[in-house]
């Protein structure tokens, strides 16, 4: 996306992200057209990271597909979207290389879990960040008794850096990157289902549906047929199979609700588009990035958007950010 200094009109209009002069969002700093393009310039108008923000909290999730390649775009997006808590996936950096100072200049505390390969997850928060945990811990991988190849794949996938959790403003926030699964029937597909099962067990062991919990990220599953541009094209493929959707429903049955669908039941609302064949421009996508919340948060969800503008421009991620607003309290 071009610099805001050159094209200030490219920033989102006040009505989209601030939603009225009387809202808490309108008091957080300059109007969108005045916001500087780099977070390092925003420290003078940033609210301290440990201070709650009145009556509304904005939670976002975004598979950035490499922070090495897209850090300037993420900084620019933070400046105009003004999320309070952000879950990032596929950072593709090590913990040592994670740009914590850049995000601190944007006003965010950070937690990251990554080894520099194709995974890596993070949480950014300006409403506080505490009690950070990574991976499944003691509820993590178990190799099968005979040590088969499939068992080793299960253990390897469960040990990958795909989950980080922290308490942000009184909400237990979990950033996840579910394995892709490659193809139906493959060892990687079995490992994907296994990983989702471990996530279900981990939730049961570490949280309660009666608490305020948000599980956010790239689930690599389209929950139902309205979440893909052409269901017939995905028959026999991952992301839409009955087994994957059953695993997602099992997570929801623990006590989670799809926050975006509570407000927007329409079809053709996607978060991912392939880079190839003009899929984004022809709106051939999938909704695979989700914010799943417990009932106490589901009752307070007020607004959401898939920020397609962040999918445009030079070297974008193949995912767009998903933002959801919740009333605090």
Key words describing this protein structure:
8 helices; 14 strands; alpha+beta; globular; 6-stranded mixed sheet; 329 residues; disordered N terminus
Number of helical regions = 8
Mean pLDDT: 84
What is the helix fraction of residues, given as a range?
10-25%
Q: What percent of residues are in strands?
A: 15-25%
Q: Which structural class should the secondary elements be placed in?
A: alpha+beta
> What form results from the Cα inertia axes?
globular
- N/C terminus separation: 36 Å
Overall strand count: 14
If you consult CATH, what is the topology? Deoxyribonuclease I, Chain A
CATH architecture: 4-Layer Sandwich
Strand arrangement across the biggest beta sheet: 3-4-2-1-14-13
Summarize the structure.
With 329 residues, the chain is α+β, with helices and mostly antiparallel strands. The chain has 8 helices and 14 strands. 43% of the residues are buried.
Would you mind describing this structure in some detail?
With 329 residues, the protein is an alpha+beta fold. The protein has a single domain, classed as Endonuclease/exonuclease/phosphatase (Deoxyribonuclease I, Chain A), CATH 3.60.10. Helix content is 24%, strand content 21%. The chain contains 8 helices and 14 strands. It has helices at residues 14-17, 67-81, 100-105, 149-159, 187-206, 242-255, 259-263, 295-298, and strands at residues 56-63, 85-89, 109-113, 121-125, 130-134, 163-168, 171-177, 213-218, 257-258, 272-273, 285-286, 289-293, 301-306, 322-327. A 6-stranded mixed beta sheet has the order 3-4-2-1-14-13. The chain has a 6-stranded mixed beta sheet with strand order 5-6-7-8-12-9. Helix 4 packs across helix 5 and helix 5 runs parallel beside helix 6 (242-255). The longest helix has 20 residues, at 187-206. The model is unreliable at 1-53 and 143-147 (pLDDT under 50).
């Amino acid at each position: 996306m071009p610099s805001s200094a050159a094209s200030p009109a490219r920033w989102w209009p006040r009505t989209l992200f601030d939603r009225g002069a009387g809202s808490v969002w309108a008091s957080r700093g300059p109007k969108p057209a005045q916001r500087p393009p780099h977070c390092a310039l925003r420290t003078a108008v940033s609210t301290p990271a440990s201070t709650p923000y009145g009556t509304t909290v904005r939670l976002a999730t975004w598979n950035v597909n490499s922070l090495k390649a897209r850090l300037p775009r993420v900084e620019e997006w933070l400046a105009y979207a003004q999320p309070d808590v952000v879950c990032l996936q596929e950072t593709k950096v090590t913990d040592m290389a994670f740009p914590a100072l850049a995000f601190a200049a944007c006003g965010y505390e950070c937690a990251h879990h990554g080894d520099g390969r194709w995974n890596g997850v993070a949480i950014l928060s300006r409403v506080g960040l505490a009690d950070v945990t990574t991976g499944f811990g003691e509820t993590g991988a178990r190799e099968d008794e005979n040590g088969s190849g499939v068992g080793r794949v299960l253990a390897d996938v469960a040990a990958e850096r795909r989950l980080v959790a922290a308490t942000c403003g009184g909400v237990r926030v979990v950033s996840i990157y579910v394995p892709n699964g490659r193809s139906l029937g493959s060892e990687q597909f079995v490992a994907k289902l296994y990983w989702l099962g471990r996530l279900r067990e981990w939730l049961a062991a570490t949280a309660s549906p009666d608490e305020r919990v948000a599980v956010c990220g790239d689930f690599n599953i389209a929950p139902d047929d309205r979440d893909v541009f052409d269901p017939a094209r995905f028959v026999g493929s991952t992301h839409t199979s009955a087994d994957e959707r059953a695993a997602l429903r099992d997570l929801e049955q623990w006590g989670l609700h799809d926050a975006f669908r509570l407000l927007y039941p329409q079809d053709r609302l996607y978060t991912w588009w392939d880079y190839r064949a003009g899929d984004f421009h022809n709106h051939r996508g999938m909704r695979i990035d989700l914010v799943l919340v417990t009932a106490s948060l589901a009752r307070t969800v007020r607004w959401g958007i898939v920020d397609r503008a962040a999918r445009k421009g030079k070297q974008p991620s193949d995912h767009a950010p998903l933002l959801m607003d919740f009333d605090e309290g």
